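Recap slide: Aminotransferase-like plant mobile domain-containing protein, sequence and predicted structure.
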Amino acid sequence: MVDECMANFGILLGQNDHVSSAIKLSWIRQIRDAKTLDTPKFVQCYARCHIFCLIGTTLFLDKSALMESCKYLRMLRNFAEISSYSCGSAYLAYLYKSLCQVLRYNTKDMDGPLVLLHV
C-alpha cells in the first residue's frame, strides 16, 4: 500500500493516514489541494487524486465515507490506460451486489452506487 501511494501520488503514506488497508480520503484531498498544476506530472497526480476520491465517494461507495480501500490504487498506476478501462460493468455488478445485500432481513441501510440506481 505504501509503495502504491508513492508510485501514484509521490508522497509517503504516514502512519495516521490509513487504517488497516483503507486510506483516509482526507489525506488524498490534502495532497490534491496542495499540488500546483504547473507541470504535467502534477496535473497527473491531481487527476489521480481526484479519480481516487471519485471512486471512493461516488462509484464504489460504502457506508464509511471517510476511507477508501487501497485495492483501487493499482488501477491508477498506468495513467495512459485509465481511459481504456471498462468500468460500467463493474459499477453495475457492484450495484447488483448492493441490491442483493439490502434484501437481507437484518440490513438497515444500503450502500453502493445509488446514483446509478437513480439514473
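Residues 86-119 form one domain.
The helical segments are 2-9, 25-34, 40-59, 73-76, 88-102, 114-118.
(End of recap.)
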